[in-house]
Amino acid sequence: TQVSLFDISDLANPTRIDQWSLPGAWAEAEVNARAFLYWAPEDLVVLPINVQPWGQEGQRDPFFGAIALGVADGSIVERAEITHASGVPEKFCETWLEESEDGDAITHDECWVQPDYQTVISRSVVVGDTLFTLSEKGLLASDLDTLRPGIFVPFGNS
After folding, report:
1. Contacts of 32 (CB under 8 A, 6+ apart)
2. Which of 10, 44, 94, 99 has the highest local Cβ count within 10 Å?
């Protein structure tokens, strides 16, 4: 996933002046523009992000939520991660043996986390001085200035 900032003062020759990227991530905004929020009064971009637990080089730990980016003075700066997850995702590990071509035993260890897919944020909106983010799990109100999480309203049996 990548966000780029362009200087379009010359429409015939737009120039990229900054970019932010997250290896191994997927953003719903890549296929649905409604998932992307730009809030001009705060120079704020909110982008729902999913980082799957596949372990791509340079990738962050698995994450399901949104990234808040600040856009000012020709640069993009990551301001906050917003998540509806509570606690640390459960980690699973397994070990198995495999026989090599020469008959030796090879031990394999693999660990992964099982994220809560209900915490995938799909939309965000600003109302007054509050940023609201929506997932299948519920609705989170965060302070627009600090982006600190506030009240979380869970849906159903979440």
Report:
1. none
2. 44
